[in-house]
Amino acid sequence: MHKPISLSGWKRPAGIVLVLIIVLELGFLLLNDKKSMPDLEPNKSANKSVWLENDDVLLYLETISQLQNHDMYLAADRNNGQLIQDSLKYLAERIDPFAAYLTASEFINWKQAQGDDYIGIGMEIVKNQAGQVICLPYPGTPAEKAGIHNGDQLLSIANEAVQGRSILAIGALARGAVNTDITLSIQNRNGEQKTLSLTRSAIAFDSVTLSRLDTFPVIKISAFTPDTPAKLKKLLATVDNAKPLVIDLRGNAGGEFSAAVDAAKLFLSEHKTISAIKTKQTTENYPSDNSRINTSRLFLWQDAGTASSAEVFIAALTRNQRATSLGKNSFGKGSRQEILQLSDGSALFITTGLLQTPDGEFFDGKGLAPDANLAANNPKTSDYLLKLKELLQDKSKITNTDKQ
Fold first, then answer.
1. DSSP state of 84
2. What confidence score (pLDDT) does residue 400 get?
3. How far is CA 76 from CA 69, 73, 79, 83, 350, in A?
4. Across the strands, what pairs with 351?
5. Strands 347-356 and 335-341: what pairing?
6. What are 208-236's pLDDT values in tens digits?
7. Half-sphere exposure (CA, 13 Å, Cβ side) for 247?
8. C-alpha distances in angstroms, 75 versus 70, 86, 102?
9. What's this model's pTM, rounded to 2 decimal places?
10. Mean residue pLDDT across the chain
11. Pairing assessment for the beta strands 123-127 and 133-137 based on DSSP bridges
12. Does 208-332+355-397 carry CATH code 3.90.226.10?
């Protein structure tokens, strides 16, 4: 769960590093890629005198002092600074289910874990609304080969329980030197627990592939990486626009936000809304341009492991009446997280934006329902193929009106 998974492509405010999840989109950045983090400059704009004139701030400091001086349950070695750090961690996590406060030393350790000498195991991680850490492995990676499936819950990593830890801290634990081993404890959807030993290795897989299923061309997008749009464009040039086309997004945990946007542009006429990101200050819209090269009847395959940027791609095409989706409800990772470094070198990892579909719907935490739902809990490829043929027989259920 959500390395970079980068939902990059957003404008980067001064002093802010985008950590994409999301999803996202964080797991790919933290568990996967060899990404070096830029040095962040602390926020020096805080006016200390103004804060010290605030009665609420003074009351907070007074409370910390009284606890330190008089509370018998407070360990003697806990000083005021540690109490404040503990309270900031608690506050951030109470306000935002994805948030975390990192002390200066924790933030340094996290940045070091993003260096080129560290490598991961090939999966994203994301916290759900219940605080559980959910695994979203990429195909052909150590995580998938070890038997980790989309939706499995991560219980511990490197013999450290993940409960109560931030996504950043968990991701840093997962990364290490190439060819070193790491132990994970996993619980699957049936409640069965298992302990796995994985070897960290370089992750390399083709994000876009073309195959044929029955008589249908099927383009599988495993993740949205920076080169996905170019690879997709190349494959689309070999496809007959007069025939139905399947784009398989099952198990696609997300990736680069900008890559998903650029990929969607290949199918949409100009001036269509692809996605929007709502922040406290504004709403950023991402429209289509004149990049369209494909006019096939499109069918998008999705499942519970389809998340983040993959959901952006699906919403862009289905809500613009360009494609018909079928499968199961998607994961529901529709938020953007960023790191804001504070004046003492500590950092906040918080949600700064929520993704919207072209028609303004928020899907974070609930996912996207398919246009055609498959009844089976875990439908097989044969179930998708059968439903596709049914839809082609009943053309009234096919959405593809964007013919401009």
1. H
2. 65
3. 9, 9, 8, 12, 31
4. 337
5. antiparallel
6. 999 999 999 999 999 999 999 999 999 99
7. 33
8. 11, 13, 21
9. 0.79
10. 84
11. antiparallel
12. yes
